[in-house]
Design goal:
about 210 residues, four-stranded antiparallel sheet, 3 helices, OB fold (Dihydrolipoamide Acetyltransferase, E2P), 15 strands, alpha+beta, globular, single chain, disordered C terminus
């Protein structure tokens, strides 16, 4: 099986969705199945419309965290901080004062940078591949621990009694741990592996860097 047809979207743009909640119905020449959401968030864009065909491993939808307005709020705070710094520098030119405002600004910058680098490890589970399919066998891992992977990039091949398919990665980042080895069986919903997003790895480096 190399492709399928999107028969019905169960969610629309702007709708919120939970992890493993049915997201879209896909039909192939072997099986009709519901594809669950790999992450919790808000539907930002549907990339493949109903009745359109899509290849295995191709992205179907973009899911965000619903916090798009936060970036504009951060810009407003940065602008106000810059204005305060400008006023402080003018006062220092008129009458020399201790450089406490500059030190406070550095601390604020470090706090904001560490906050923006937030992220978390993401589990990769075996999705429902058919109404009567309850388990599958891992036939081949396409990535090894420590390798980087992109969103929706094929991560592992799984075989069931009805269909052979590739499970895509739910996040862009690094494969941390493989929980189910090749030729081992896994039940639907079972964790196959753990991945770390790029945001999490950046946050870890920032936390490990000594301050001062």
């Amino acid at each position: 099986m190399t492709e399928g047809t999107v028969t019905r979207w169960l969610k629309a743009v702007g709708d919120s969705v939970e992890v493993d909640e049915p997201l879209v119905e896909v039909s192939t020449d072997k099986v009709d199945t519901e594809i669950p959401s790999p992450v919790a968030g808000v539907i930002e864009e549907i990339l493949v419309e109903e009745d359109e065909e899509v290849e295995v491993g191709a992205p179907l939808v973009k899911i965000g965290d619903g916090s798009g307005a936060s970036s504009s709020d951060d810009d407003a705070e940065d602008d106000s901080a810059a204005a305060e710094d400008s006023e402080d520098s003018e006062q220092q030119d008129a009458a020399p004062e201790p450089e406490e405002p500059a030190e406070e600004k550095e601390q604020k910058d470090e706090q904001s940078s560490s906050a923006s680098g937030s992220g978390e490890a993401q589990e990769v589970t075996l999705p429902a591949l058919g109404e009567s399919v309850t388990e599958g066998t891992v036939t081949r891992w396409l990535k090894e621990v420590g390798e980087t992977v992109e969103v929706d990039e094929p991560l592992v091949e799984v075989s069931t009694d009805k269909v052979d398919t590739e499970i895509p990665s739910p996040v862009a980042g690094t494969l941390l741990e493989i929980k189910v080895q090749e030729d081992e069986e896994a039940e639907v919903g079972q964790v196959l592996a753990w991945s770390a997003s790029r945001a999490l790895r950046g946050s870890s480096r920032a936390a490990a860097r000594p301050q001062g």
